[in-house]
Every structure is written in structure tokens, then in C-alpha cells.
Amino acid sequence: MRNIRQQITENLIPVFRRKLSGVDALPQLAVLGLLSGIVTGAVILLFRLAIEWPLEHFLPGAGSENFEQLDILTRGLLPLAGAVGLGILLHKLSIHDRKVGIVHIMERLNYHQGYISFKSAMVQFVAGVTTVVSGQSAGREGPAVHLGAAFSSLFGQWLRLPNNSIRTLVACGCAAAISASFNTPIAGVIFAMEVVMMEYTIAGFTPIILAAVSAAIITQIVYGSEPAFSVPALTMNSLLEIPWILAIAVIIGIAAAAFIHLVDNMGRHHHRPVLLRITVAGLLMVPFAILVPETMGIGYDTVSETIHGELGFWLLLGVGVAKLVITGLSIGLGMPSGVIGPTIFMGATLGGAMGLIGAQIFPELASSVGFYAMLGMGAMMGAVLQAPLAALMALMELTRNPNIILPGMLIITTASLVTSEAFGKKSLFLTILKNQGLSYQNSPVIQALRRVSVGAIMDRSILRTDRELTPDEARKALKSEPKWLLVEGSNGPTALLPAVDLARYLEDTEKQVAEEGIDPPDTVDLMEIPANRRDVAPVQYQATLEEALNEFDSTQAEALYVQRHVAPMIQRVYGVVLQSDIESYYQYRRS
Questions:
Q1: Residue 21's pLDDT band (cuts 50, 70, 90)
Q2: Ramachandran angles phi, psi of 539, nearest 5°
Q3: How many of the other CB atoms lie within 10 Å of CB of 58?
Q4: Domain with CATH 3.10.580.10 in the chain
Q5: At 414, is the pLDDT very low, low, confident or very high (cuts 50, 70, 90)?
Q6: Do residues 143 and 101 touch, judged by C-beta distance below 8 A?
Q7: pTM of the model
Q8: Helix H or strand E segment including 128
Q9: Superfamily of domain 451-588
């Protein structure tokens, strides 16, 4: 048994890694996607249990969202106490360790190839549970995406996979988290590609789909096959409603722009102490918790009541605006809570309120309040995240009704255009990244280079050799017919030269000895003989071509030798990469 395990470790896993270095490793990526979905599904189940179990035992009545039934004093003190506790926790952490949520995942993808630490996952787990349980205006989907991405990344790091594969695993974790949270696999796939990765690739679809499906199956085993909301049969009564749907789209687009603007403005206080910011966010939540308790927690009970037409106009409008204001203030001040849930809440309540107005104006034509609530939900999600396709897929899967596709496409795209073009707002996540002094590189060239590891294009025909050799040792080195000679120095490789240059030097020396009768040299100094030597720098085997190009720029090296840790203090060299190799590969893939 031990020999079989050793054989797998020494033979199969290295081959698996090498296959993953390229852009066409579809079978290997499919296996990773399936495993990522299973791992993420289990993590999300644990996360939901950690939220629902204490709330079911603490809150009066049945269910885990009855904050409204708490007495006024408890409603006021609960979010403040939770905020102070979170503030103290985050204050004790370093600035790097405080970062959580989808924005942090995008940062790790853009600047660190998707490497996420276990500590980051644990901080997100505790923060995500605390924000919801303490009644902050929060969602569970953002933290779930972080957890799915983190554990998928850790899985790839544990297997020491190439960085291009770890990036794909992160996308698989994001898709699986959305799929497990809403029971919407297609929306999870589109969300991962449109919002987080910001790219669509044929090779990426298969593993991400498998991750979303496997995570949904894990969740359905526990919670059943129903989506997050129980939605009645919805349909548009008449095409004459389209002008009113467009008017609602404009209103939702304005609300989304206001929300992003509020988060952006409050985010400018990020330089202030985190304990102060989180405590202030908790204090601001107190009057909302007392006066508008529907804004506490996730609020999916209110969304469900809105869809079923059980709430009045002024309540819908009031809780929708209140949710927008307190969520924008809280997230802008740094409260580590999710934004997707509050976005759905805002869209549903505002859409439902507009539906009631439409019913008063056109009683014979207007569709149900639930119809407009679902449209508002999709419109707000699409406008705030600037992800119209993900919002449309979520709307379709939540309603399971093809009749909502046409009005859904219309209201989502219109609201997104109003937010982005009329008010110049980018996605909320990109806005927060910009506020932190960061950006997201998603040009076609960068995306193409990130999808491939150096292991896919490196030249393996190399031989590591000492600087000084005897003529016999030099001839023996050339017998294996290497293309490159990597010259060792006191602190590792120092230069790269073509093996043909050494062969030419030996041939010229032999001819000179024969013709002139001089004694042959005792040693051959590879740093002194005539040769086209190149300065070298190391690059890790897991690195993508983007990282390799960055290494060329930062070190001014003419070649990179590809190495990997095989034991403590021991690096093994697998090949070499020239800058021209990267350029040639990219040009080949384009043609």
C-alpha cells in the first residue's frame, strides 16, 4: 500500500501538474472543478449552520430571521454589541488579515494569482457569522463566495498546482458558493466569470459548471431542491406594461447609483482606525434596528413577503430606502458583511413598491406585485454589480419561469445602463478596489497570459553544470545533447549559454592544438569562453506567463530558470524560459 501511495506521489501528481500548466488541460480542470464544488458545498453548509442554529434558538418564534419580534432594547443593543466585538477582533489583526469578501478575492486574483490564506478564510467565517447573527444589515452570499474561493485556493496550494490552475479553482469556488447559497447553478457560473474573473473562456466553463452543479447537489441533500425563495407563478399581463417597466428600470438605476456613491464616499474614511469605523457603523445601525427592524440580518423573510404581495406601499418603500442607506453606510465604513443579499432586498422592496403604484394607475393591466418585486431584484443586482447576465440567470433560476425572460432582460439592461452611463458608476466591487488604491487588470493580453503556466512553454533541454570543467567533462556534458547549459555559481545559477557554443569552442580548441601543437587547456571556464551568455533569474514552476513577464521587467534578466521547492533548502530546476518564448506563444495562440 505504501509503495502504491509513493508511486502516485512521485509519478501521477507531477504528470497531473504538468498537464495543468497549459491552457488545454480540460480533463484535469474538470476533475478539479468537481472536487472544488464538493469542498465548497460542505463549507457553505457549515457556514449556514453556524448562522441559522444560534438565530433559531435566540430569536422568538419560528425561523432564523424574526428580528422584528425582539423587544426594542434588544434590537438596539444587539447590532452595537456585535459591531464593537467585530471592531475589537479586526483591530487586533494586521491590515492585510482584515480584508474579506468578494473584493478581497478579486485583489488576490489580480495581484497574487489567487493565493488565499487559511487565516483569511477563518476571519471571513467568524466575521460573516457575526454580522448576520448580530443583526447587521448583511448578506451571507459575499462571505460564502470568499469561503468557497479560499478553500478551493487552499486545495490547489496543497497540491502545489500551477498558478493558472489555482486561478481557475478560485473561480470554481465562487461559482459553487453562489450555486450553494441560492440553489442557482447557472447564475453561479455566470457570476464567477462576469463579476469575479471578468472573462469568459471555453476551457473555464467546464470546471466551473461542474463545481456549481456538485455544490448545488451537496446543498440539495440538506435543504431540498427548492430555490432560495418560494416564487408564485409570475407573468406579464400585457405588453402595455413595458413603458412602466422602463420607468422602474430608471428608478432602480438611480437607486443603484446612489448606493454605489454612498459606499464610495464612506469608503474614503478607510484610513481611520478600524475599531472606530466599525463601532460607528454599529451605532448608525441602532436607530434603523429600532425603527425599521426589517433591515436587520439577511431579510429574506421580508423579500418572500414582498414577492407574495403581503406588504403595503409605504412599508416597502420605507424598508427599501432604509436598507439602501444603512447598508451603504455600513459597507463603506468597513463592516465585513456581504452585499448581494442586501442588493436583492433593496431591489425586491423598491420593485414591489413601484408595482403597487402601477396597480393603482393601471389596475386592469398591471401584473402582480411579486412580478415587479422579482424584476426589481434582478435590476438592482445587475446595476450594482454591473453584471446583467448573472442577474438575468439568477432571476430565471429563482422564478423557474421563462415568461420573465423578456421583461427581465429589458429592466436589467436598462437599469445597468442608467447606473453606468448616466451616472458614470462602475461595479460596486471595482469602486471599492479603486478606493483602496487598487485596480483590476482584465485586458485580453493579461487574461491570455494568466491562463498559462511557465511549465507549458519552458525548454526542458537543459543541463546544470559547474563554471569550470575539464575538457573531458565538457565533452561528457555534451553527449546528452542539451540545448542550454545553466552555469552554477556560489549562490545558484548565474548564466545561461547555448550548448552549441561550448561544442564550437571545444572543436576550435582541438583544431588549434592539432595545427599549432600547443598543449590543450586544463580547464574550460564557461564564463570566459566565447559564447552568447544570458543573465538569469529564477521563477517558480507554478508561475503564470504574466508573472514571468513581470519577473523579466523587475530583474532585467535575459532568461528565467524555472525552479520548484522539492525539499527544505533544495530547489530543483526544470527548464528555462526566454522572453521571446512568451511572445511567440502568445502570437501563436492568437493566430
A1: low
A2: -145, 140
A3: 14
A4: 451-588
A5: very high
A6: yes
A7: 0.85
A8: helix 118-133
A9: CBS-domain (3.10.580.10)
